[in-house]
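Section 4.2 – Deliverable D4.2 (structural model, holo form)

The reporting period included a commitment to supply a predicted holo structure for the target in complex with iron/sulfur cluster. Inputs used:
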Amino acid sequence: MVLEKYKQKRNFSSTPEPSGDLKVAAERAQHAKPGKGLFFCVQKHLASHLHYDFRLEWKGVLLSWAVPKGPSLDPKTKRLAMHVEDHPIEYGTFEGVIPEGYGAGIVMLWDQGTWTPEVDDVEAALRKGDLKITLNGYKLKGVLPGGASTDFLTTDHLDIKLDFQSVAAAGSRLGTGTLVVLDDATCPVGFVHNLQHFFAQESCGWCTPCREGLPWVEKILLNMEKGYGTTEDLEILQMHTEYLGPGNTFCALAPGAMEPLQSALKYFKEDFEKHIHEHKCPYT
Ligand code: SF4
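Output (structure tokens):
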């Protein structure tokens, strides 16, 4: 029976894991075909030993493997993967804490996307244990290493040490120590707009540049998202990063708000320009 082993191993009155709807499995099995966006995910699983669970949608379920060292970004690097019981499709979005018992520990979604087989006969490849595939997951675009009021770093900075001096030398700060990640499916303009919306609301209004400048920045970014941006707006945004920069306001809120904006204008300028030239958000 589909998902029999999965169901046998778990007590759904205590675990928050999805119980697996067989109707969902049957529908997915009918509609999901190679070339039609078969789902894949990788989950980070802090069980008795930290490992990664790699799952591929096939015939309405998620074929699953436990990968002790996690997936490699280099296709030439081989990693041990242990085939485990099929999981339900609903498991592909599961994050949570599994209580004492089977698989006890924390599960976090680490990557997801679609996969495409590089062979015509997937069943035969699975039987042979030699299935070549392409994964189309999210790619890292940028990171705010110290939270919302720090400068973006990009994939060019992946090798720097995560300490105060190294991050400062790369042009950002460790700030609150809360890493915020931007993937390549998320619009950087919308992302920065969201941050500016927050900062504009937080302004106490004491200093003119902050009181007037932050709502203006927010409005420009919102218009750009809607397709009404102009090249002049880019100059105005740049100007704000200077007027609201360090030394021009009473507290650090306004300069902090400018850090993700100034670095987004530096690293993701192409995205801003696309919004202006295409008169829409290219991510929608
Ligand atoms: S910079 Fe600080 S003090 Fe000045 S208006 Fe903004 S929040 Fe208030």
